[in-house]
Amino acid sequence: MSTISYATVPVLERFLLNGRRAFVTGASRGIGRAIGLALAEAGADVALAARDEPRLTELAAEIEALGRRAVVVPLDLGDLEAVGPAIDAAADALGGLDILVNNAGVTYRGGFGIDDPAEFDRMFDVNLGAVLFGCQAARPHLAAAGAGVIVNIGSIAGTKGTGLYGASKQGVHALTRGFSREYANDGIRVVALAPGQVFTDMGARVRANPDEMNTLLHHTAQARVADPSEIAAAVVYLASPAADFITGTTIAIDGGRDFFARR
Length: 263
Ligand code: NAP
Fold this sequence. Notes:
By secondary structure, the chain is an alpha/beta fold. 44% of the residues lie in helices and 14% in strands.
């Protein structure tokens, strides 16, 4: 049996990410943008991946103004063969990698019915395939770093929801559990977050539909949606030594969403 003693480390110091190097997918907007910024505020240098290069460049400038390094990684995660080389190149540029955040994701209209196989492939490639290949590519870098962390952004749709989007996110939660066991001997933790509704472009369609929005708020104890920075704060925690005994699990961050309506 081995334990780590943090008895002499002040608690707030355990949340700091000074000197860590992170790779964040879907960093051009929404939750991923907030994660990139929050990791940098906590002390990390960050590689920012997505397709929209101008937005990544804007965020990189904000991060560099904080005194951290930022590397822009133009990347289409629908091209699974591009994932590994992008992570390797970012690790080279940053001098290593301690944190991978698989955040990028796409949704679609509808429940189980997708009649276009290309749309099915696109969603499962970005939501699940890119997580799989990202974890595999990051593993040697995280192992070399000594205390690597992978944070996967799943969804409440993967724990309590249904449909093909939910299936892709349930896959993310399952990979999280599986990789946590496989990678533990390399000192790597693997954790997932399952957000409820967050105020980003992805949720705009729901927010624009008063009936859907009323139902959602009625089934959320706090009767509100999350700000992206609330998800980012949880990522900072999970990526930090403060969360050193957390691995393999999916943590809900959903304001108390349930099948039951609030009173
Ligand atoms: P968003 O505002 O739509 O942003 C999605 C991000 O993913 C963008 O940065 C986008 O960048 C990137 N992305 C999409 N397709 C990509 C591709 N083919 N290659 C590379 N990057 C791609 O969504 P969000 O709300 O921030 O969602 C972030 C994550 O949280 C997703 O995994 C989502 O499923 C999950 N989530 C969201 C909510 C919510 O209510 N918003 C709830 C639960 C879980 P580019 O377009 O520049 O490529």
